[in-house]
Design brief:
660 residues, mainly alpha, 4 domains, two-stranded antiparallel sheet, globular
Length: 660
């Protein structure tokens, strides 16, 4: 469907979420939110169905082409559109840092199990915030549904000094609850105000016969208790102030955890582990809870969770991993805020020994449950240095007791070792100079498989992951990673090959441990996820190449957009040290035929650039691209992120196999 500009639009409000913006825009245009989603490119209309398909994942991230279409329809800038999605805080909050380039949704930061730390099926809210600031636009269409309300660590409104709500006061159902993986409930309903409850409460064969709750959720029509006189609320608001400061785009680059500096992202991973530990060991943690901690709310949450587990077992249904290990934060703000406050108190201790003494009873009780032990061994490698120091003795005891491979129920998991390099320092495809120094004398195996396998193994060393999980973290499709592992393992059945391979891997790991200039390849991959060479830069590049061409050759050379995209793939591969066939421009968002043609064109440019005559334009082009890539890599390593691409830079041109 061709996306055209809408007749009218709206400016996004500060902190507004994409679902909330769609609701307000639909109300202004007197159109159902589902119709707005279709007109702006967020969703598509399915034949013979009244409700359009709008994936819930849109609130997390918009693919480049979808973001460009939405910006075109709403007349918003690329930055405004990006700000509506939760992945705008992905550098600080790992659960929304999805690995889009692999096409595997909800593979967060290469760390499995973080999906439950984002509320995609419902939202919290503050009634006073929804009432707006009294301006005409907010009086008419309501205020912003804040995107941060979708994150478990945001449980209170510091402006109105109250805990957030999660359910409707009338129907008592979760707000904006969707069980079908849709962005919003009742996408077809244009009769509701953006601040009304959209829960269907009456049955009917057709949606028009299904009655809706429709209760107003803003405080303009319903009195609410803000809890201003509640003395137990003040300490929770202090914790909330801290967490909001860490989530803010201009927040501190690092914080402290168990007396040691750490990144903000690792701090939130620490919180996640300790909240799960408190739930798995409860009521052990109740003894250390201060009087203002709402332990009765935690009791109620865990009682409901255990009852849910019992009901599923009685019905013969399998328990989810998150339910077994307690890795699902409560949606109720009082319980969630209290658990986060308890976890924050433990992380605020400056002495790792003191922290260890306080954690030992919790760890001992939780470790009686084998699923939680596997969970702990799987996730501890991603925590901060301070927390890893505090739980290190217990983790080592567990590994010595049950063996190094108990951390994963599928595939073997290597324990994370004490290396100076981390998962972010491992490229997808082993660089040629690393291979030449350590693996060049290994014969009888295709170097391509050896380079992939070496990167996977280094990731296992750094992150303590199973081999399939390490391959996913590098962005390798499951089939490619498993095929590589099978070929290398078959080759390594020979004892001599196995010995030489192990020695080469250990030598390379030692070299990386001693290096002082390690490259953050994960940052490079993130920076170039939605990137292609900007048109202006491309024109400058080819102008330099044309000056080196002889006679009329420059006028006969094809410099169309298809070659710009092929060049973009090669630049991506050089900067990220990845395989060009796994570049985002060749991901599943493109039609299969265009992906095949672009891959052939990229291979053609690369091959002629390496083997062609010195005077051929491909040789000059590849040299110019290498220089351009190296300069761009320096900027990315310094913290620069390419701006979102213009629509003209991500359009899908007619691709042909380049002949010149």
């Amino acid at each position: 469907m061709l996306v055209r500009p809408l007749p009218r639009s709206l400016d996004p409000l500060p902190g507004e979420s994409l679902p909330g913006y769609v609701l307000r825009l639909g109300h202004r245009l007197d159109r159902a939110p589902g119709r707005i989603a279709v007109l702006t490119g967020l969703g598509r209309q399915i034949p013979q169905r009244s409700t359009p398909a709008v994936p819930a994942g849109r609130l997390l991230h918009l693919p480049p082409e979808t973001a460009a279409a939405f910006a075109h329809a709403t007349r918003l800038s690329a930055q405004e559109v990006a700000g509506l999605c939760l992945d705008s805080v992905r550098a600080r909050y790992p659960p929304v840092d999805l690995t889009y380039e692999t096409g595997v949704l909800r593979q967060t930061s290469g760390i499995a199990g973080l999906a439950s730390w984002v509320f995609t099926r419902s939202t919290r809210y503050c009634p006073q915030c929804l009432a707006g600031d009294g301006t005409p636009i907010q009086q008419t269409h309501g205020a912003a549904w804040q995107k941060l309300w979708r994150l478990p660590p945001v449980f209170a409104c510091t402006a109105h000094r109250r805990l957030l709500l999660h359910d409707c006061p009338e129907c008592r159902q979760p707000v904006h609850a969707c069980q079908s993986g849709s962005l919003l409930p009742r996408l077809h309903d244009s009769t509701l105000h953006p601040t009304q409850c959209r829960t269907t409460i009456g049955a009917g064969a057709h949606w028009r016969a299904q009655s809706v709750c429709g209760a107003r959720l803003d405080s303009s029509t319903r009195p609410t208790t803000a809890g201003r006189q509640d003395p137990a609320l003040e300490p929770l608001l202090v914790v909330q102030h801290k967490l909001l400061g860490l989530l803010a785009p201009g927040g501190p680059p690092e914080t402290s955890s168990v007396g040691q500096p750490t990144t903000v992202a690792q701090y939130f991973l620490d919180l996640r582990l300790l909240v799960g530990l408190l739930c798995a060991s409860w009521p052990e943690g109740r003894q250390s809870a201060e009087s203002w901690i709402r332990v009765e709310a935690i009791d109620g949450h865990l009682q409901r969770q255990r009852q849910q587990a019992a009901d599923r077992l009685q019905q013969g249904r399998k328990l989810s991993h998150r339910l077994v290990v307690g890795d699902r934060p409560p949606v109720e703000s009082a319980a969630c805020g209290s658990l986060l406050a308890l976890a924050d108190q433990l992380l605020a201790l400056d002495d790792p020994v003191d922290t260890q003494q306080r954690l030992d009873p919790l760890l001992a009780r939780a470790s009686t449950q084998s699923p939680w032990v596997r969970h702990l061994l799987h996730v501890e490698a991603n925590c901060s240095p301070g927390l890893r120091t505090a739980i290190g003795p217990h983790v080592r005891t567990l590994r010595d007791t049950i063996g190094p491979h108990a951390a994963s129920s599928s595939g073997r998991s290597r324990p994370a070792q004490d290396h100076a390099f981390g998962p972010q320092h491992i490229p997808q495809y082993l660089p040629a100079d690393w291979y030449d120094r350590h693996f060049n004398d290994l014969t009888g195996i295709n170097p391509r498989h050896l380079r992939r396998f070496a990167s996977i193994t280094l990731m296992q060393m750094a992150a303590g992951r199973s081999r399939p999980a390490a391959a996913r973290q590098l962005g390798l499709p499951p089939g490619r990673g498993s095929a590589t592992s099978y070929r290398v393992q078959r080759w390594a059945r020979d004892n001599a090959n196995s010995t030489r391979l192990h020695a080469a891997l250990e030598a390379l790991a030692g070299e990386l441990d001693a290096a002082s200039d390690l490259i953050d390849y994960r940052q490079r991959r993130h920076a170039l996820t939605a990137w292609s060479i900007p048109t202006d830069n491309w024109h400058q590049l080819i102008a330099d190449v044309k000056q080196r061409q002889r006679g009329r050759a420059s006028t006969r050379t094809d410099w169309s957009d298809r070659k710009r995209l092929a060049a973009s793939v090669l630049v991506w591969a050089r900067i990220t040290q990845g395989e060009y066939r796994l570049a985002p421009l060749l991901a599943d968002a493109w039609p299969p035929r265009r992906r095949r043609e672009l891959a052939r064109g990229t291979q053609h440019v690369s091959s002629w650039g390496r083997t062609g005559r010195p005077e051929h334009h491909y040789v000059a082009l590849l040299a110019a691209l290498d220089t351009y890539a190296d300069q761009l890599a320096v900027r990315i390593d310094a913290g620069w992120t390419p701006p979102p691409p213009d629509q003209r830079d991500i359009r899908q041109p007619r691709l042909r196999h380049p002949a010149t």
